[in-house]
From TrEMBL:
Residues 38-376 form the Aldehyde dehydrogenase domain. Probable malonate and methylmalonate semialdehyde dehydrogenase involved in the catabolism of valine, thymine, and compounds catabolized by way of beta-alanine, including uracil and cytidine. GO terms for cellular component: mitochondrion. Pfam families: Aldedh (PF00171). It catalyses: 3-oxopropanoate + NAD(+) + CoA + H2O = hydrogencarbonate + acetyl-CoA + NADH + H(+); 2-methyl-3-oxopropanoate + NAD(+) + CoA + H2O = propanoyl-CoA + hydrogencarbonate + NADH + H(+). GO terms for molecular function: methylmalonate-semialdehyde dehydrogenase (acylating, NAD) activity. Belongs to the aldehyde dehydrogenase family. One of its GO terms (biological process) is thymine catabolic process. It comes from the Eukaryota. This is Probable methylmalonate-semialdehyde/malonate-semialdehyde dehydrogenase [acylating], mitochondrial. Keywords: NAD, Oxidoreductase. Its EC number is 1.2.1.27.
C-alpha cells in the first residue's frame, strides 16, 4: 500500500515520483450527493484536489454536468413537498441525532479537513466544533420558529405572524472552513422546513460530503439536502435556476458581489458574507503578555486564511517596544504539515496563494517597509516512501 511519511531531512527522489505518478492514476473521485445517495459524476471536466502540505493528489472533483445539477434541484423540489409539512418536532429530532453523530466523528472530520485544506488538526477540530454549535442552536428550532399574536392592538384589529418555509434553498461555501460554513447553512435551512442544494468549495469538499452522509444516518429523508460540485458554471446555475428561492454565500468580495447581483436579479433572496480582515490598535497600557499571545494567534491561526485574521496592527507609544518580543514569538512557531504533532502553522491552500502572499511581502519591502522577520525561504521537506 502506498503511504506518505514526513521526514525533515529528505526530499522526493525520481523513484518516489515514479511511484507517486503510478498511484495517482488510481486516485478516488469525489462523488455528488443526490436524493440521499452518492452518485458518480459523468463529468468530462475534473479538478485535481491536492494536499496543501505535500501537493499530492488526494481526490478528483467533478464539474457537475447541467443534467446532474438539474437532478439535484429536482430531488430537493420533490422532497420539499413532504419535508415542508413535516412537524418541527420531527425536524428537531433529526438535528439532535445529527449533533450526536458529528460529536462521535469529530476526529475523522478533522483529519479530512487537514488533508484537503491543510490546517492543523487542532484548528480543524475547532472548525468542526464551531459548526456543531450551529447544529445545537438549530435543535432549539421549535422556540425559534414561533410566530406572534398581538390581540387588540387597535379597535377591531389583531396581528398574527407566521413563519413558513421558502422552498429550495442553496449554499455556496469557501475553502477556509470546510465543516463550519456548510453547518451554518443546511442545518438552518432544513430546520425551517426548506430543502437545500449545497456547492462546497471544489478545493476541499470532503468534510461537507461526510456531513451530508451523517445527516442521512440521522434520519433525514432523501433529497432534503443534495450536493453538487464545480466552479463558475455551478455558481451561475444556482444563481439562475428558477426553483431555487434563496442563496447563502460565504467567500471573497468579488464572488460575493457577483452572486448577490446575479441572484437578486433573478428574484432570489441572497445572503452574501464577503471577505474582511481585522485591524488592531495596541495601546501601551494593554496587558503585554496577553496582547502578544492574542496577536500571534490572530495573525497566524489558520495560516491567516480567515476573514477575522489580524493583518494590520498599529502600536501606539511605548507599545512599539514590544515588536522584538512579537518577532521572537513568531519565530518560535513550528511550521509543518497540519497532521504533524506540535505544528502551529500549516500550509496555505495552494502554491498560487503562497505566491500571492510572497508578492505582498515584497511589495511592502519595495515601498520602504522594514522586514523584521522574513520567512519566505523556509523549507519544509516531505518524503514519500513505500511502506
Amino acid at each position: 500500500m502506498y503511504k506518505k511519511c514526513i521526514c525533515p531531512s529528505l526530499q522526493r527522489t525520481p523513484s518516489h515520483m515514479k511511484t507517486f505518478r503510478q498511484f495517482i492514476r488510481h486516485i478516488a473521485t469525489t462523488k455528488l450527493y443526490i436524493d440521499g445517495k452518492f452518485v458518480e459524476s459523468k463529468a468530462t471536466d475534473w479538478i485535481d484536489l491536492h494536499n496543501p502540505a505535500t501537493n499530492e493528489v488526494v481526490t478528483r472533483v467533478p464539474k457537475a454536468t447541467p443534467a446532474e445539477m438539474e437532478s439535484a434541484v429536482a430531488s430537493a423540489k420533490k422532497a420539499y413537498e413532504t419535508w415542508s409539512k413535516t412537524s418541527i418536532i420531527t425536524r428537531q429530532q433529526v438535528l439532535f441525532r445529527l449533533q450526536n453523530i458529528i460529536k462521535a466523528n469529530m476526529k475523522q472530520l478533522a483529519e479530512n479537513i487537514t488533508e484537503e485544506q491543510g490546517k492543523t488538526l487542532a484548528d480543524a477540530e475547532g472548525d468542526v466544533l464551531r459548526g456543531l454549535q450551529v447544529v445545537e442552536q438549530c435543535c432549539s428550532i421549535p422556540t425559534i420558529m414561533q410566530g406572534e399574536t398581538l390581540a387588540g392592538v387597535a379597535k377591531d384589529m389583531d396581528i398574527h405572524s407566521y413563519r413558513v418555509p421558502l422552498g429550495v434553498t442553496a449554499g455556496i461555501t469557501p475553502f477556509n472552513f470546510p465543516a463550519m460554513i456548510p453547518l451554518w447553512m443546511f442545518p438552518v435551512a432544513i430546520a425551517c422546513g426548506n430543502t437545500h442544494v449545497i456547492k462546497p468549495s471544489e478545493r476541499d469538499p470532503g468534510a461537507c460530503m461526510m456531513l451530508v452522509d451523517m445527516l442521512t444516518q440521522a434520519g433525514c429523508p432523501p433529497g432534503v439536502v443534495n450536493v453538487i460540485h464545480g466552479a463558475h458554471d455551478a455558481v451561475n446555475f444556482i444563481c439562475d435556476h428558477p426553483d431555487i428561492r434563496a442563496i447563502s454565500f460565504v467567500g471573497s468580495d468579488q464572488a460575493g458581489k457577483y452572486i448577490y447581483e446575479r441572484g437578486a436579479k433573478n428574484g432570489k433572496r441572497v445572503q452574501s458574507n464577503m471577505g474582511a480582515k481585522n485591524h488592531g490598535v495596541i495601546m501601551s497600557d494593554a496587558n503585554r503578555s496577553n496582547t502578544l499571545n492574542q496577536l500571534v494567534g490572530a495573525a497566524f491561526g489558520a495560516a491567516g486564511q480567515r476573514c477575522m485574521a489580524l493583518s494590520t496592527v498599529i502600536f501606539v507609544g511605548e507599545a512599539v517596544e514590544w515588536l522584538p518580543e512579537l518577532k521572537k514569538r513568531a519565530e518560535a512557531l513550528k511550521v509543518s504539515a497540519g497532521n504533524v504533532p506540535g505544528t502551529d502553522l500549516g500550509p496555505v491552500i495552494s502554491p498560487q496563494a503562497k505566491e500571492r502572499i510572497l508578492s505582498l511581502i515584497q511589495s511592502g519591502v519595495d515601498e520602504g517597509a522594514t522586514l523584521l522577520l522574513d520567512g519566505r525561504n523556509l523549507k519544509v521537506i516531505i518524503k514519500f516512501c513505500n511502506l
